[in-house]
Amino acid sequence: MSFQPLNPRPFLQARVGTEVFIRLKWGQTEYKGTLESIDSYMNLLLRDTQEFMDGKPTGSLGLVMIRCNNVLYMGSADAIEITDMGLK
């Protein structure tokens, strides 16, 4: 089995306008929202953002900018099933 490197820019560009789920490196913070745009440094701008701490919703934040170096992982929100939060 050989490792095939993946360029993250096309992955991010393909998800602009879709709902995404982002986990931060620090603590147990997660965000769910619509990916509005990315910049040349791969910073993320989310709209209609919801914040989750330790798997529990803490509220709606609206428009949020997340620096790229704070992201642990990101995926399509519809592909992630989190039963603790009632998301599917």
Automatic annotation (TrEMBL):
Subunit-structure text: Component of the heptameric LSM1-LSM7 complex, which consists of LSM1, LSM2, LSM3, LSM4, LSM5, LSM6 and LSM7. Component of the heptameric LSM2-LSM8 complex, which consists of LSM2, LSM3, LSM4, LSM5, LSM6, LSM7 and LSM8. The LSm subunits form a seven-membered ring structure with a doughnut shape.
Keyword tRNA processing: no
Protein name: Sm protein F
GO molecular function, one term: RNA binding
GO biological process, one term: mRNA splicing, via spliceosome
One Gene Ontology term, aspect cellular component: U1 snRNP
Natural source organism: Penicillium nordicum
Keywords, in A-Z order: mRNA processing, mRNA splicing, Nucleus, Ribonucleoprotein, RNA-binding, Spliceosome
Subcellular location: Nucleus
Family: Belongs to the snRNP Sm proteins family. SmF/LSm6 subfamily.
Keyword Ribonucleoprotein: yes
Cited SUPFAM superfamilies: Sm-like ribonucleoproteins
